[in-house]
Prior knowledge:
By secondary structure, this protein is an alpha+beta fold. The protein has helices spanning 2-10, 39-51, 59-68, 72-76, 125-137, 171-188, 198-211, 216-223, 240-255; strands at residues 83-84, 89-92, 95-101, 104-110, 119-122, 147-148, 155-156. Mean pLDDT is 84; it is low at 22-33 and 233-238. Helices cover 36% and strands 10% of the residues. The protein has a three-stranded antiparallel sheet. Strands 3-4 form a two-stranded antiparallel ribbon. It has a two-stranded antiparallel sheet with strand order 6-7. It starts with a helix and ends in a 36-residue tail after the last helix. Helix 2 runs antiparallel to helix 3 (59-68), helix 3 (59-68) crosses helix 7 and helix 8 (216-223) crosses helix 9 (240-255).
Amino acid sequence: xxxAFAMAKKNRWVxxxxxxxxxxxxxxxxxxxxxxxxxxxMRRFLDFVRTDKHFRxxxxxxxxxxxxxxxxxxxxxxxxxxxxxxxxxxxxxRQLLRIHDGDRMMYYIExxxxxxxxxxxxxxxxxxxxxxxxxxxxxQRDVEPVVWNEEHxxxxxxxxxxxxxxxxxxxxxxxxxxxxxxxxxxxxxxxEIPPVTPHVCRHTFCSNCASIGMSPKTLQMIMGxxxxxxxxxxxxxxxxxxxxxEFFSLMNNKAxxxxxxxxxxxxxxxxxxxxxxxxxxxxxAAPDDDE
Length: 291
């Protein structure tokens, strides 16, 4: 409706555009829009998370979010079998979610949100390194809880991300980690970081890829967007091999080098003592995903 009314206003068919307002997104104590971080802010935030005594445990996960464009529920739904080191891709096949079922919390899985959501996302070498570290650090358990879909026709277990109680982490956990990390950063440094959510990480990745010239269709397929309108407005047909080939051609040409893992942090979190109590995540909050 917004572009239609914009054209109508331009042609003086209507006096005003009632849809000419900023799109408000998920809120935490105020009105915030989910804009991509600048490259400088992304680096500062990653440096801080990487070196902070409390939040560094989340660094690999945050790094992966900023460098894959995964939706947060897709990210939480990953198992070791989805990380294909041989072919250098992440097999995105499901989302992991958790809802209230009476007095208890119930996990379930479902397919990604769009027809293009089931996809293979190419991995850079640094992303592979981060995944290997996550897998090496994850506690091995004799029994992994099995999570089913609502129809009870598909199941999965062994999800990569565990909370402090050993349960599987879901979207709300990571929104909580990012919110608290950003709040701590902004308490310490005068030059504050804008809001950071899992979707901001996704949007930042998308913007960074577009900034180095990735084609709209390739970016649409990597992001799993339902429509090219969510990326750019022109596209050409690409096969899966073309997508993977163009991705690595662009990325490995040093055009995509916004945060290498061998970077020496410039923003170093001070050792201010004590542990950080993040508080409990709001498990009733809707995941901060897009379409």
